[in-house]
Predict the 3D structure of the following.
Amino acid sequence: MRGQVLLLGGTAEARALADLLVGDGLPVVSSLAGRVSRPRLPRGEVRVGGFGGVEGLRAYLRDHGVAAVVDATHPYARRMSAHAAAACTGVPLLRLARPGWTGPATACWHRVPDHDAAARVAADLGRRPVLTVGRQPLPHYAPVLGGHPALVRVVEPPDDVPRAWTIVRDRGPYALGSEERLLRGHGADVLVTKDSGGAYTWPKLEAAAGLGVPVVVVDRPEPPVGVACVDGVPAARAWVHHVLTPAGSAR
Ligand code: NAP
């Protein structure tokens, strides 16, 4: 019996990879943080909830005979990626992170290193921001943009937000037409986003470009040093097969 493949998930790529590996007959366990109330689930076994830091993850790897880990968490899930890098001593680890966005719609982008800078730049650029950075970073925006009539789009409701803000709960994939209506309907004069990559949330950037709305883009955190990285599901699938194939055996 081959050891378990632990797939740190919470992304479309993680689901796609789990589906393929389960189809390949491999013992895959997908791990979700448990932040979203009705998550889209991959095929195969799923566990939910944090491991309890680096030590907890290390214990999980040992107790479950994990033979390989694929960190397919979101490009901005910095802590989970760092924990995986620290815990996977002696267990092969691969980072799967979809590429960041490029293209003509990126012409009106203002790249910033973090959420605090994004809040400041957004305040300089407009009065009616649309924030699409997720729920957790919102405390970085409230001190600067709390008095602005911001439209804030989130999957799960935030705990406590300024009264001037309007919360819209929604989850991608989004379409160009509805993104244009959202920006136009709010009278948006600046859009704030992470460089999430992928197709699910790309239409807002095309909509912003078409409407002449400037975009503030929070750069990705640096990936953990020394961890092998691929940017696509087929390469991650090939890596898993490679590390699970005993040396010297023909496939
Ligand atoms: P994070 O800040 O990097 O991680 C915080 C803690 O959450 C981790 O230390 C870990 O707890 C737990 N955790 C995170 N991902 C986990 C997973 N896949 N399985 C088990 N525990 C996990 O993570 P985050 O940015 O809050 O993201 C949480 C989840 O949402 C991730 O699965 C990510 O892929 C997904 N997601 C994130 C974003 C984003 O923009 N950050 C966007 C879309 C989806 P312990 O220390 O207790 O192990």
Remarks:
- Residues 12-23 form the longest helix (12 residues).
